[in-house]
Amino acid sequence: MSLLEIKNLTVEFQTASGPFRAVDGVSLKVDEGEVLAVVGESGSGKSVSMLAAMGLLPWTAKVTADVLTFNGRDMRSMSDSERRKIIGKDIAMIFQEPIASLNPCFTVGYQIEEVLRIHTDLSRKARRDRAIELFQSVGIPNPEERLGHYPHQMSGGQCQRVMIATALACNPKLLIADEPTTALDVTIQKQILDLLMKLQAEHGMGLIIITHDMGVVAETADRVIVQYKGRQIEEADVLSLFTAPKSVYTKALLSALPENATGGRLPTITEKLTDAEIFAGAMR
To answer: What range(s) does the ABC transporter domain occupy (predicted)?
Structure first.
């Protein structure tokens, strides 16, 4: 049984010009201990797909799916209270832009302890001890002191580590990392990726990494799903995707890697392919 299973997920938003389908027929499975990368350009529906699965989109969004289960439970039929017991505890998400995701009005210690207060029966002292333990596990120095700091008093890399610690607070079965290295310098990116993979292996979690960076995919994933304009274009194990991509879009995506730049110019996908060519080979 898969940890998370989604079949034919669609998401529509109402706009001034009518309904806009942001996700169109996405399907995926994640098993315990598996790392799945969801890759594609900005606007390809990667983040929206995961937010829809977690029930975190605004009520105005129309979300449908033939199957949407977590650990064997149908998430489509759950009440809001049932879903709240799972989100943050069994399924956790590291959002883009850690500075924007943390509340500037509360200390980082308060924010991580709040998750523990909601989802566990730990005493106040036990929650603080657990927060210190989590900060230590993600490599935040002087954790007792850092608990009293506000987000603006910490660097981007430290805030990302706080987000990871908060996501891991209740030992989730599934962790979703949305562009976990965006806006971080190269050295910090490597540290964060290494930390995520170390923690994933230690806890045996299922891990979904949402990214546009094929280098991140190569370093972390077991399987890869490629999305374009809300549609699922290809799914493969990571070795097959890099050595023998099937879709024209995936081939173009790989050819646009920085190491393939010629004459100082990086190849672009839009110069090579039309939507009709891309969708002609899309998975359905």
So the answer is: 4-254
